[in-house]
Design brief:
single chain; 315 residues; alpha/beta; 6-stranded parallel sheet; two-stranded antiparallel ribbon; 14 helices; 13% strand
């Protein structure tokens, strides 16, 4: 029986929401997976970065924090780095590289989210893990974190997350990356857990299908709404952090939205709304480390693009 069908979603209130049915399903599945995988945070690490003087509020049990991952917590896209690790371990064939490279070029040039091309990217990425065991990908993910991700965490954003933990609040990653990858990163950072894209599995083996759709844009907002309902949170007390205008639906849900390393659209929107901004990038480099607007789903092919870049460097 598909893993998506095993979820007990009875705790989620049913009501009309400004999102597609697939967005709602993806959000609710991500929330359920996050609840199942959450754990106690380890002792807090010391940090020299200052926290906001009036926020977060210590002892506010109705509050939590939700952090986007790519370019908010970590430099670059998690799936880009994960893909590098998979290529190193011979998960890709040359024909996959050619197809993924073309798809990534399309997203960068078009700068738009054509549904047909987004579905093509999603299906291509899922074909890579189809037939592999969930436990195998989790084990590999631990190794890849150490190889490519650990040194790419923004210290400033890490300090913000730690401030929420120190205040006794739960902190969740919210990302289009697979929930397994996101959970590894959350655990390594000492966070509560992660909301991520849920891939279907049967008997612990990936089927090559998703539960709903990638956790991107409105689906992220649905995931946060569902988790807040399950956890008894007051969203007006909660905080959300992101670099991308694609996450405006999620940021707009909470009482304390932050634009972190924002793209131009989010920076403009944040200024208009009076949201707080934090930018941990420096100089012209800041403009180079962002990923295109379509990368919430396009990043599913980012690992293959990384592999192409690695091949070129070796020639």
């Amino acid at each position: 029986m598909p893993s998506g069908a095993l979820f007990d979603l009875g705790w989620i209130p049913r009501r009309r929401r400004p999102a597609t049915a697939r967005s709602v399903l993806a959000g609710e599945a991500a929330a359920e997976a996050a609840r199942k995988s959450s754990q106690e945070a380890p002792p807090a690490e010391e940090t020299d970065a200052p926290a906001e003087p009036d926020f977060p509020v210590v002892g506010d049990t109705a509050a939590a924090a939700f952090f986007d991952l790519d370019n908010t917590v970590m430099q670059g896209a998690a799936l880009f780095h994960f893909g590098r690790g998979l290529y190193k371990r011979h998960f890709f064939h040359k024909r996959d590289l050619a197809r993924f490279a073309w798809q990534q070029i399309y997203f960068r040039l078009a700068g738009s989210e054509n549904p047909e091309h987004m579905a093509d990217v999603r299906n291509s990425a899922l074909s890579i893990v189809q037939g592999h065991r969930v436990a195998e990908l989790m084990s590999i993910g631990e190794e890849i974190y150490d190889e490519y991700m650990a040194e790419r965490v923004w210290p400033g954003t890490r300090a913000l997350a730690q401030a929420h933990l120190d205040a006794g609040q739960k902190v969740w990653l919210v990302t289009a990356a697979p929930v397994e990858t996101a959970t590894i990163i959350a655990r390594r950072l000492g966070l509560t857990g992660a909301l991520g894209t849920v891939a279907e599995s049967v008997g612990g083996v990936y089927t090559g299908k998703l539960v709903g759709e990638p956790l991107h844009g409105p689906a992220k907002a649905e995931a946060v709404r569902a988790l807040a309902s399950a956890e008894g949170l007051d969203l007006s007390h909660c905080a959300a952090y992101s670099d991308s205008a694609n996450d405006i639906p999620m940021l707009s849900l909470v009482g304390h939205p932050y634009a972190i390393n924002p793209d131009s659209r989010l920076r403009k929107h944040a200024r208009e709304q009076g949201w707080r901004l934090r930018d941990y990038r420096t100089g012209r480099k800041a403009a180079k480390i962002g990923i295109p607007a379509a990368a919430g789903v396009g990043a599913l092919a980012g690992g293959a693009a990384a592999a192409v870049a690695l091949q070129r460097r070796r020639r």
